[in-house]
Amino acid sequence: MTKTQARLALAALWLGTAAIGAQAAGLDKDTGLYVGGAIGRSAYSLSSSKNHVPVPWGGQKANKSGTAYKLYGGYRLTEHFGVEAGYARLGRVSQWSSNYGGSKLQTGTGQVFYAAATARMPLGDAFAVNGRLGVARGRISGDSNWAPANQRLSGTSTGLMVGVGAEYRMTQNLAITADYDYFGKLSKQAKGGMFTVGLKASF
Fold first, then answer.
1. What 8-state DSSP symbol labels residue 30?
2. Alpha carbon of 20 to those of 14, 32, 80: distances in Å?
3. Is the per-residue pLDDT at 10 higher than 60?
4. Tens digits of per-residue pLDDT, 169-190?
5. Contact at 8 Å (CB) between 30 and 119?
6. How many CB atoms lie within 10 A of CB 128?
7. How far apart are CA 28 and CA 23, in angstroms?
8. CA distance 140 to 63
9. pTM confidence score
10. For a Cys staple, 144 with which of 78, 135, 154, 185, CB 3.0–4.6 Å?
C-alpha cells in the first residue's frame, strides 16, 4: 500500500467514525435525565356534591379549585419514550356537609405521588407534545370524621393517572412546559387534576 492509499484509507476511516458519532449524537440529543417544577390551579370533582346540602345564610362559599404545584423527575430512554415520577400538591378543597341536622363547612388538602410511562413527539427543533400514563397514590387530609361517610372528603386512594402537555425548548437544556394531569380518585369522595406551567431542565 502506497502512502497516498494509506492516507486515503485513514481519511475514509476518520470520516466514517465521525459520521457514526454524529448519528449517535443526533439519536441521543433528547435522551437522558430531566427534572422539573410547575405551578398552576387544581380542579376537584366531589361525589358528595350531588347531596345538595343547604349552605347557611352568609356561609362561606365551597371551593373546588386551589393553588397547585408539582415537582418531578424522569429519564428518557429514547427520543420518544421514557419514565417519570413526581409529587403534586393540589391545594385546598372545601364543601358544606350535613352535621346534626344542620350544615358545616368541611375542608381538606390534596396531594399525590405518581409514577408513569411517558411518550413524546417533537414538532420541529423547539416544540414537542407529550403524554403520561401511570399510577397515582392520592390523599385528602383534613378533619372530617364528623361528616357522614358518603360526604367525607378525607382519605386515600390509588388509581390511574393520565397527563398531556406541551413544551417549548428555550435552550438545549431548558424548556417551558404547560400540562394537564388527571390523578383520578384522591379519596372515596374526591377526584382531582391540575393545570400547570413550569420549567424543565435536561441533563
1. T
2. 10, 20, 21
3. no
4. 999 899 999 999 999 999 888 8
5. no
6. 20
7. 9
8. 14
9. 0.76
10. 154
